[in-house]
């Protein structure tokens, strides 16, 4: 006798250290709400289909409601001997209402049960993630609206390239997040499907109504193949994959936040709440939260790789390997929720050093393309205009000045096509202003972009 709910065919009792290795209760207790919801729907359906009597159903439901109450109070005591959330709750139910509790598992297996729990859990949490992404997008839009006229150096290769509106830079992250949001939304289609009633793998001999239990649980569809129902973990992989791409975006933004808050850039200042000091250097204000988010991308990618690897060689249908789908999922959820909340606050409260950005853009060569375009507009082949401008940049570097500091004589010596109107063209404000191609950094385009962005919220 093993003392287990499944112990009938066993002779020797279990050993605790082996139980500990096999148990998932340490982490799958996070599915307690979903597991109870699933059981209530299942037993309701068993009653409606005449598989259990209405009396039995009422007694079982009453017990399940009591367990729900205890779960809310946090007074359920889980045990490793009962392996996982499903067996723990079933044991508690039987202890509470007697042997009739053993009828709950009619026409069901832990295999369809755990899959149902995971579908219910992710369906709910993905919606929370989507709301958090939106909140973060709003913070970005608010900062962007505040910085349409803030000139900033735009970079390629981390070298100053062309002047831009700082709002344009910020809004880039809005659109990345918009795609993240859409991906999470889209994944709901494949998460919102009920595996309940698939049984262990082959369906059941009881006259159950899978559509009914699915509807009771708010699922939009049911799996068409019982083996697929219990073996599918694609929806979790999708979640981990969407989470990974989200973290890639947050990590890029975090990197910029870190650079911008450095003494070398000083483009922004983070609120004290999102910074930490040094235990030895009194002057330090470190962007720890941004660094942590950049670092946490690693564990989220790891969770994705972990699950893909778990799944790659397992035969149909359920295998215990699949229990390994949970910790990575909980960890990813926890990580992206935390990262999104922190990032929203960090961006909402940061101070943009408009003056520093303004100065930066007036003390660089990011207006060189303007000069080349100017010459091209006057009829010089662009390749030649590029060469002439490059030579003028070199002249400036030798003299320790910028293009706008060159005299008209110097400029005209480089090309007779240049006239005094060139100074207006070289002003960074003008450079930004004139980039009004669709989606460009021109102030008017940025305003249009922000208006479009707001329609997504
Ligand atoms: N704890 C298990 C898991 O997470 C539940 C399903 C167990 N099924 C079984 N046949 N052993 O995968």
UniProtKB/TrEMBL annotation:
GO molecular function, one term: argininosuccinate lyase activity
Keywords of the record: Amino-acid biosynthesis, Arginine biosynthesis, Cytoplasm, Lyase
GO biological process: L-arginine biosynthetic process via ornithine
Main location: cytoplasm
Limits of the Argininosuccinate lyase C-terminal domain: 365-433
Subcellular locations according to the entry: Cytoplasm
Catalytic activity, EC: 4.3.2.1
Cellular component annotations (GO), alphabetically ordered: cytosol
Catalytic activity field: 2-(N(omega)-L-arginino)succinate = fumarate + L-arginine
Domain Fumarate lyase N-terminal: residue ranges: 8-302
Keyword Cytoplasm: yes
Top-level taxon in the UniProt lineage: Bacteria
InterPro entries documented for this protein: Arg_succ_lyase_C, Argininosuccinate_lyase, Fumarase/histidase_N, Fumarate_lyase_CS, Fumarate_lyase_fam, Fumarate_lyase_N, L-Aspartase-like
Residue ranges of coiled coil: none
Pathways involved: Amino-acid biosynthesis; L-arginine biosynthesis; L-arginine from L-ornithine and carbamoyl phosphate: step 3/3
Family, per entry: Belongs to the lyase 1 family. Argininosuccinate lyase subfamily.
Name of this protein: Argininosuccinate lyase
UniProt source species: Viridibacillus arvi
